Amino acid sequence: MIFAALVAGFSLGFSLILAIGSQNAFVLRQGLRRSHVLLVCLTCALSDALLIAAGVSGFGYLSDKVPWLGDAMRWGGALFLFIYGLLSFRSALSANDALDPEGSTTQSWKAAFFTCLGLTWLNPHVYLDTVVLLGSVAAQYDGSRFWFGMGAMVSSFVFFFSLGFGARYLAPFFARPRAWQMLDILVGLVMWAIAIKLIV
């Protein structure tokens, strides 16, 4: 029963974060630039673990207790994603440099850390996936809820560290400025699409 709960948690958790989103796009970009990759991957994985723990422990009823919380998260998240998307489009228009093979960067670790926190904690979809959905499925595993949650947490660590540190293998493709422009445009479109979805 424990093994089945672990596998189910891992499978569901992995499938929920597999699709490209604002958080994944940011991790991919940091991985390609080799900029604070460990910090970014660890921040994403630990944030997911905290949210999964909250969902599995039955903390999902908070939104019922605080009626305005959902709207505040929705509008705040949409605004954050819109601004980040705008910055990505601006970067695409002004970018004329290729990937630095040495991995040098002018971005501070604080900027990477707080951007990562914003993309994670200001995105209502993260709460729906981790707290609500995983929490409700975990309830079906009665005595094995802990192991279901552990499986989901492990999937987050596996995914984010694979994405962040595996991105370096795409570096030859991003040695061309045009590839970076395409990535920036894609990131901007993803951010705006999620923001519009939150509003509509």
What report would you give on this structure?
This protein has about 200 residues and is an all-alpha fold. The chain is built from nine helices and no strands. It has helices at about 1-20, 20-35, 35-55, 60-65, 70-95, 110-120, 125-140, 145-165, 175-200. α2 packs across α8. The longest helix is centred in the middle third of the chain and has 26 residues, at about 70-95.
Q: Layout of SSEs?
A:
Blueprint: H1 2-18, H2 22-33, H3 37-56, H4 62-65, H5 69-94, H6 109-121, H7 124-138, H8 145-166, H9 177-199
Helix pairs in contact: 1-7, 1-8, 2-3, 2-6, 2-8, 2-9, 3-6, 3-7, 3-8, 5-9
Flag low-confidence runs: none
Helicity level? over 70%
The secondary-structure element order is HHHHHHHHH
Mean pLDDT: 80
* Alpha carbon gap, first and last residue: 41 Å
Mass-distribution shape: globular
Quaternary status of these chains?
Answer: single chain
Helix-and-strand structural type: mainly alpha
* Main pleated-sheet profile: none
Total helical segments: 9
**Strand residues, percent:** under 5%
Q: What's the alpha carbon Rg, rounded to whole Å? A: 18 Å
DSSP strand tally: 0
